[in-house]
Amino acid sequence: MKTSIIITSIFFTLTAYSQSLSLYLENDVIDKEDKHYTNGTSIVYVSNSYENSFINKIPTPFSQTKNANFGLAFSRLTFTPSTIKQKNKIVGDLPYAGIVNLDFFIYKWNESFFHKYMLTLGMVGKSTKSEQFQKAF
User: Fold this and answer.
1) I want to staple 96 with a disulfide (CB 3.0 to 4.6 A). Which of 4, 19, 92, 131 is the partner?
2) Where on the tree of life does the source sit, at the highest rank (predicted)?
3) What sign does the CA torsion over 48, 51, 57, 62 have?
């Protein structure tokens, strides 16, 4: 019996100046065993750093900052039972579960502090289509 799950992670980042676009892919395919946290996908964009821009005018606590940037992230996480071939409910095991979310965030900082403000919108449960997504990939 295995006591751990092996998760492979692939991480790509494209950077131009200070803006970046990142892609995260995680999957337990190497272990050839679906169990609990089984895969995750995320794409993240972070803008250039701006001095005294419109982002600094967005009201936040400690908003007297010189530097700011913003970003967007889309993520999907999938959790599976011990066996994905079982049609009936497995007592004492996790059901298929999924989380899909979209994050909007702002970074503000100066010489003495760094703050992140974030709004997350998302779905949990059957509406995420995690079972279909897991079986397709």
Assistant:
1) 131
2) Bacteria
3) positive
